[in-house]
Amino acid sequence: MSPLLLFGLVFLSHFKGGLNTPLPPPNFGDRVSVLSIDGGGIRGIIPATVLVYLDNALKAKDPTSSLADYFDVISGTSTGGIMTLMLVTPNSSEPNRPLFTPSQVVQFYKRYGPDIFRPRSILDPIKCPKYDGVFLRDIARQILNDTRLDQTLTNVVIPTFNENTIHPLIFSNYKLKTESYLNAKLSDIGLGTSAAPTYFPSHEFQNDGVQFDLADGVLAANNPAFVAVSEVLQHNGGKEILLLSIGTGIPKAKEKLGDIFDDACQALWLNTHKEVFTEAMFRTDMTHYYLASIFPGLSPADNYLRIEEYNLDPSMEGIDDASKRNMDNLEKVGKDLLLQKVKRINVNTFLPYELDQTNAQALDTFVEELYAERQLRLKRKSMEKGGRPFIETI
Prior knowledge:
Blueprint: H1 3-19, E1 31-37, H2 45-61, E2 73-76, H3 79-88, H4 102-116, H5 134-144, E3 155-162, E4 167-172, H6 186-193, E5 203-207, E6 210-215, H7 218-221, H8 225-235, E7 240-246, H9 264-272, H10 274-281, H11 287-291, E8 304-307, H12 324-339, E9 341-346, E10 351-358, H13 359-384, H14 390-393
Parallel strand pairs: 1-2, 1-7, 2-3, 7-8
Antiparallel strand pairs: 3-4, 3-6, 5-6, 9-10
Helix pairs in contact: 2-4, 2-12, 2-13, 3-6, 4-12, 5-6
């Protein structure tokens, strides 16, 4: 083999390896990057579609990268929690790469949604919850296998609600140093955070001698952004936070509680879970208000990007409508959302107002920030070892 060819092969292998290097910890950088994904059942197709754009934009800079290579924390509730786990679980054939890309997550929803939300047989004497959860349990265990929280490609923060204690329970890599019992299988965490009352049964399991009876994370935080930011602030000091938060769509305004008791299943659940409902009521989503103390309080306002459809067609409101037509429409909502202007919430009126750039343009800027932070960390880590930064030596 010629010296030139040998050099070329060595160069390419090192170059590829360098690009696929895990993200160094925040102490090597200036910011902590956070991705947060809301709950919303099958409407998870909306944020997954937005993440396809983000993933492609990052791969344009680094073809070997994944979202886990750029975010210090990925947080999700309910369907967002399951999506989070799909994006951070190591691939068995390539341990440094995730099990799913965002594009594959969209296809997962469209392929398995009808099975996850398949109604019970009319002969089934059990009418509540609406779905038995068997398929969701089986597919979660199949794809996530025996992977545990301490094996994720980056930190995760996933809210659930523990019916045993009537308190929120947050699964977070940060907590494992002191709360080892939280090092559960990812399948159990995913099934717990997605156990939507009246839709799926609560998820019971035991880990490290502790018994869990988990209900949907929406009872603690449907939008987990502030939960994730709180975890970061507790463990990363006063560093700037770079936050991307993606919602699953808010239907056009209507009387929110007008038909809450119209469904017998809902009435039955509320009657037997009064403490849970009361606790959830007093934990109303005030995420935007709380985040106002962080952005621009501790970090520049431009460090926070929220992408949400605030005028979702009511026909797509259902979190369990897994018909092909509805799933295709939800994917279209995600794509159209990229062309909409960025909206922020006025924390006095709680109404959105538009900025002068589209969500796609804002994501492009976000990509530049993520890429610059990653390169900075790689450079500083290389310098700490006494060598020149790898990119600079090429």
